[in-house]
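Q: My labmate handed me this sequence with no annotations at all. I'd like to see what the chain might look like in three dimensions before we decide whether it's worth expressing. Could you predict it?
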Amino acid sequence: MIGSVPTEIEEKEEMITNTTEWKTVSDPKQAGLLFSQDLLHSNRDSKSLFLSVDIRQDKEEQDRTLVTFYKRDNIRWTSPLQCKLQGDVATGSGVNRHMMSTVIFKLMSGFHIKFGSAAVTKIFEGEPDHLIPSVLDELLDKNMFTVAGRMIGHSFLHNGPRFPGLSPAIIHILLGGPLETTPVTIQDCPDLDIRDAVNMLDGDAELKELDAIHQLCLSWDLPAPNVTNRKWLSEKLLLHAVIERTRRQINQFQKGLKETGLWHLLIHRRDVIPILFPRESEAEVTPQMILDCITWPSFITVIFDSYKIEDNVESDVMDVCRVSGYLKIFIENASQAKLKSLIKFWIGWEVPVTEMKVEIVEATLPTALTCFEKLRLPRHYNAYNTFHQDLCACISSSYSGFGCA
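A: Here is what I predict for the chain of 405 residues:
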């Protein structure tokens, strides 16, 4: 909890960040960025963390590598980070961005690691904007919620993707909010049977299936339902299902966040919390967001991979206009999933940056220089359908590598 005794690392990081401007700057996004930069800079001389994933291995082995990296204890997560993709030619900061994006993507979609009977294990469960920690005991035993906290905090420090969709009730308890003011709702309960019981008790209709509800109440040390206590009992059941059953998971989650050094920011700048845990709708990428970030190619400085073009300048301009127009059409009409795949292919993760460059080049297929945030598109396309087909094929490689030549 917030009042717990800080570790030696936390005390050092708190001392370092006490005099920085992140406390007074008005924009919470800027506060988070300044805090992260200051914390990483203060640890720039620490021994680097190395994260290497072999993309030639199957998904389970890759996911195990990620989890193993974040399961290590007594690690200074603010140390310099160096990531490597074995089996891919990409190097530099783009690989770090790719890795942070992959980590958050796995937390959202699930890890290909068998805990229990499922082939894919989700650390959080429920509907969008109401995710809560899974109650699977094996995840708790394996310290997976500490892992989740480390992953989310680490990504934030390196200006990576945030973790969207977490229940406001879980965020409230996670950040030390009192139980009595927890904003829990029926949408926070992923168990449909418990939802049915809560809805039945909360309504005015005749109580049915009392035996099942009674057994549920007994298992959670609550009294049997009756006409007098039904509404009170519905609230207690919901609170227990969402909060009380996940207390240990939340404590682990909190521990992982603290270990990244992020806790000091969160307790002093509560306005940063919605940035760390945005609503899913707020985390969406719109076509206009991407278009506003693009630096389009100059007609004069068209760059080609193999040689300097000496053909008619008008022809060059037409190629640039045509292919750039195809990209604009693609962005304006792509699904949310394809937009995020495009950005990840382009810069290494799904968060648009202020200058996403486009070049029209002599090449066979689209490629990306993620370290330079640059997308290279072949000039030979004369039909949008062909452009669309090739670009979709290339960006689909972003979760296994960069597709770079």
